[in-house]
Amino acid sequence: GRTAAVVPAAGRGERLGPGAPKALRDLGGAPVLVHAVRAMCQADEVSLVVVVAPPESPDAVRAMLASAPLPAAVEIVVVPGGANRQESVRLGLAALPEEVDVVLVHDAARALVPAATVDSVVATVRAGAPAVVPALPVTDTVKRVGRDPNRPAGAPEPVVDTVDRADLRAVQTPQGFDRSVLAEAHGNAAEGLGGEGATDCAGMVERLGRPVVLVPGHEEAFKITRPLDLVLAEAVLARRET
Ligand code: CTP
Ligand code: MG
């Protein structure tokens, strides 16, 4: 079978502040999305990338990618996205041809994921795992707070307890899946049968009761979310180019 990557890139990027949709913002001379698509193309097995564009601009995104310096050997398809990430991924999955049997789902916002991380996710799916997620240990101490609806806005938050971070992992993308398992998870969510509130695809697979495994993620696969992340991404790129 063939390995494809679905790249959800339809978000506004509200936390990055005002401006173009996050995937179209400049990062070191090229849009964030071009970096993310290039990272998928550099993986050994990926021969198709489905980009899920902001719903109002699939044509502009198609034209932008057609003129970007990307390897010609990898097919690139652009479809319009939906109102939330889960819907955008579902629309991307719907564009996959029959012969695809392994699917990566990769946030455009994780633009600088190294190819070796992508390859290790694909290899672990090919070795028989239905769902594979790159992850890193959590380095911050994490505390749980109480939900008190009567606490005045801006008042200090009371701590309930400290979570044992040895058992916690921060997950990244690309998440890799056996295609039929991911399709089942998304089908259930679309029909209201479970997984609707999941914040990642692997969470939807967990609700099917199928095993999800972790492989080592990479620091450079961090998600560009807030303005400081863009500063960090520029620095990572500059370090690569020297
Ligand atoms: N995404 C998407 N469709 C949506 C919302 C999000 O394809 N309706 C994508 C984003 O483009 C991004 C990925 O999902 O690549 C992860 O989402 P996030 O980092 O939250 O991006 P945004 O939703 O764009 O940012 P924000 O939440 O700050 O608005
Ligand atoms: Mg978001």
Summarize the helices and strands and which ones pair or pack.
Layout: E1 2-8, E2 26-27, E3 30-31, H1 32-41, E4 46-53, H2 58-66, E5 75-80, H3 85-93, E6 100-105, H4 115-126, E7 131-137, E8 142-145, E9 159-163, E10 169-171, E11 175-178, H5 179-190, H6 201-207, E12 213-216, H7 227-241
The structure holds cytidine-5'-triphosphate and magnesium ion.
GO molecular function: 2-C-methyl-D-erythritol 4-phosphate cytidylyltransferase activity
InterPro entries: IspD (IPR001228), IspD/TarI (IPR034683), IspD/TarI_cytidylyltransf_bact (IPR050088), ISPD_synthase_CS (IPR018294), Nucleotide-diphossugar_trans (IPR029044)
Site (Transition state stabilizer): 15, 22
Question: How many alpha or pi helices?
Answer: 7
Unreliable parts: none
Mind telling me which CATH architecture this is? Alpha-Beta Complex
Annotation, overall tally of beta strands: 12
Query: Would you tell me which CATH topology applies?
Result: Spore Coat Polysaccharide Biosynthesis Protein SpsA, Chain A
How many domains would you count in the coordinates? 1
Question: Can you say what the CATH homologous superfamily is?
Answer: Spore Coat Polysaccharide Biosynthesis Protein SpsA, Chain A
**Major β-sheet profile:** 8 strands, mixed
Shape: globular
**SSE topology string:** EEEHEHEHEHEEEEEHHEH
Q: Which molecules are bound besides the chains? A: cytidine-5'-triphosphate, magnesium ion
Q: Structural class, please?
A: alpha/beta
CATH class: Alpha Beta
